[in-house]
Structure formats: C-alpha cells, structure tokens
Write a structure and sequence with these properties.
homodimer, alpha+beta, about 25% helix, disordered N terminus
Chain lengths: ~180, ~180
C-alpha cells in the first residue's frame, strides 16, 4: 500500500468528449454544495447528517491527504464529484472506500461512470488492496448497477438500514472489489 | 427509534458477584486508557489510528449523547469498557453499533459477556431497529463467539481487510442483529 504517497493518476483525465476529472480545490466547494445539498435532502442515497450546513457539508466531502476529492468538469461547470480514501484508520487503512455524486442536472450522460472508473483506477494507483463500500442503498439501482459493472460484488445487505425518504426502510449493500 | 432520549437501563447493573456496568464519566478515561492503549498496540482487534495519544484516544472512545460509553467496574477497578451509538448519521441512525474492550488483566471472567449483554439491552432500550458491527476481526474468536451467542449473524467477511500484527492480513466480519 502506498496511499500516503502522492500518486495522482491523470490529474486532467479526458473522459468522453470534453469531460475532465481533476482534483477538487477549495474553490470548487461552492459549486459542489448546491447539488450535494440537493442530493442529501432528497433522502434516497446518503446517510449524512440531516442538519448539514455548507460548512459542515464541506467537512463531510472535501477530503485531506491521503484521501482525495475530485470533480468532474466540463469547462467551468462542475457536473459531479467523488471522494476516496482509506476505509478505516491504522490496521484497516489498506482498503479504500469512496463516494460519488452527480449533479441532478447532468445525470444519464456518463458522468457517474467516469467518476466510478476514476475511483477504481485511482485507488489501484494509490496501492489499496481492495475497495469497500459500506452503505450502498439497495434501491439506488443506478449506483448498484454501475459498481457491479465495474467489478464490485454485493457482499451482504443489511436489512432496513436506510430510511429512504419515499420508500421507508430499505437495505444497505456492503460492496467490495479486490484490486 | 428514540436514541436521542435518555433511556439508561440499569445504570448500576449488577452482573456476576459484584461486577457493575455504569455510564463512564470523564474521570474514568485515565483508567480506561492504559488497557485501551495496550489493546490497540497489540494490533489484533481494532483498526484505530496507530499514533493514538491519550487525548486522541479519548475522542475515539468517550462518546457523547445520543451515543454512550460505559465501564464495567468492581469496586474502584475498571475491568472493561464499551461504547454504543448510531452506526450512521441521519437516515442510517436507527441502526446501532458498538465496541467493547476488556482489560487484559481481567479477561476470561465474564466481563466481555456482561458488556455484550449490556450493549444489546441498552440498544434495544434506546429504540434501535438493529445493531451492526462493521469490522469484527475474524481471528478474534472470543468476540465472534460472544456475538454469535448473543444473537448476531455474520453477514459477510471482507477478505484481508485487517492487518493483524502477528497473522498479517485477515478478514473483517460484518455482523448484524435485528432488535
């Protein structure tokens, strides 16, 4: 494992026509926050605190080394964002974890897939032995299908572990891929 | 769920002869830290940061409401400690999680079992729908056997997810019990 090093793969990775994935800087947060807040508020995909402010949201999303936060951009427009880093500290830090969000205005155009691929490639480049997702909402079919197509397996489903805003209690998948 | 209430079950619960489990106060931390540090240093059971100090360790162990930290005591001697609380914030906060440690000088005398029972009873009293353990080291046979005997199931084992100090990479169980 070398996740304390600074192996940054393709910092301006071209994906699709003019979509690029690059490290997120402090100046990107005000452009992430609007869709971050909207997605958390929708209550369908993330178990984050319900009383997030722009400032506390920043702490949940904008990672520090060895973890990373990236943005998917087209020109000056931030279409989505992802974060990745060690799933646990210390003796569990060789397994990575990650999250991603795509702005609801820009879904269905491959942004999520580009971020997903980037996560897998970056975690591999950083030397993680595997990637674990601790809480993929089972009704989030787009995310589940994306991760399955990128090589992840559903290891278990914790029943009724997520309080979906519309569907009530639904399961959370634990997903994993060895790198 | 009512984990923001203050349902404290049997704050001075009698277990065994003169073993009691009670809420941990700030004054207990200096008595927890010696075995906490020893157990983390042993590298067999917990994925905590490797550079813990007494002060940062306090932040990892001494919980604030709605979570709880308790100690198992006999007279003035702290034999072990446990913590419990929501496994996730927001839309995942109705599932509890917990950890416990028994001082290596006092193992094998039912302290772990008493703490385990207390965890299940307290989480039930607090209104959690279930209890999830995210990372039970598969070679920690005493803990695995205890949780199985208290009604938990192994939902999945993430392979090689824990870097055991003596055995190298071993699996981490995700365990769960509906309450």
């Amino acid at each position: 494992m070398s996740n304390e090093s600074d192996v940054s793969i393709e910092p301006a990775e071209p994906v699709g026509s003019d979509l690029r994935i690059r490290p997120a800087g402090a100046e990107d947060w005000p452009l992430i926050w609007p869709f971050f807040a909207r997605i958390v508020e929708a209550g369908q995909t993330y178990a984050y605190p319900l009383d997030l402010t722009e400032e506390t949201g920043r702490g949940w999303w904008m990672e520090e080394a060895p973890a990373r936060t990236v943005v998917a951009v087209r020109g000056d427009t931030v279409l989505g964002s992802a974060k990745m880093g060690p799933n646990r500290p210390g003796r569990g830090a060789h397994i990575g974890t990650a999250s991603f969000m795509v702005s609801p205005e820009h879904t269905g155009r491959g942004v999520g897939r580009a971020l997903g691929r980037h996560i897998v490639d970056q975690c591999r480049a950083d030397g993680y032995h595997g990637i674990q997702f601790n809480a993929v909402v089972e009704t989030n079919h787009a995310a589940v299908a994306l991760w399955l197509s990128l090589g992840f397996q559903i290891m278990a489903t914790i029943p009724e572990a997520f309080n979906h805003r519309e569907r009530g209690l639904v399961g959370l998948h634990v997903m994993y891929q060895k790198l």
